[in-house]
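Format is sequence with structure; example below:
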Amino acid sequence: MIKAACKIVFIIFYVMIGSASAADYIKGKDYIEVTGIPELQQPIVREFFSYNCPHCYNEDSTMNKMAELLQGDVTFTRTPVGAGRSSWILAQEAFFVAKKIKIYKQVHSKIFHRIHEEGGPFTTSGQLKTFFMKQGVTAEQFDKAYNSSDKQAVLSNYETKVQLAEIRGVPSLLINGKYEVNPGNRSAQELAGLVRYLSNIK
C-alpha cells in the first residue's frame, strides 16, 4: 500500500542542456519500468495524484503545461490516490463527482484551492456537497452522482491502478502503463521530452 506521506524522495539527478536526446535518459535513473497497467489508449501519460498532497498542488500548473505541450501527441489523464486515508478518499470522491457531473475541467483547480488555501481537507461528504453547490451544482445533481451505483467500483479501480503501477509517492507519472517517472523538479518542457521518449519505446 502506498505510504501515507505525500511523497517519498526518489534518488534522481537530472541534467538537461538544451533539448535532451534519447541517450540522455537512463532507465533506473530517469524512469523505472513497472509491472504496470494495461492502457487501451496509447500513447498516454497518467498522473497519480491527490488533491490533499501539497506537492501535487504546487506542481499542478507544471502538469497542466506539460499536458498542453503533449496535446495531439500523447493523451494526458489523471488517477486520484486514496492511500487508505479518509480525507484522501473524500478527495477521490470529489474527483469522481466532478467527472460524473462533467464539470471536472471547471472545478479541478478549485478543489486544490479549497483544500490548500481555504478550508483544509474535506472531512465529511456534507462538506463535499457544500463545495459542489457553491460551483452551481444542485443538491439533486450532487446526491445522484455521489450515491451512484458505480461509485465504489470506480474508486476500487483507482486503487487497483495504484497498486499495479507500484506507486509509492505522489505525484507520479506512468507512461503507456509501464514506465514510471517522478516529476521531481523538472520543468514542463523537460517532462514533455521524457514522456515523448518513453511513449515511443517499443
Notes: The first strand starts at residue 32 and ends at 33. Residues 7-20 have pLDDT under 50 and may be disordered.
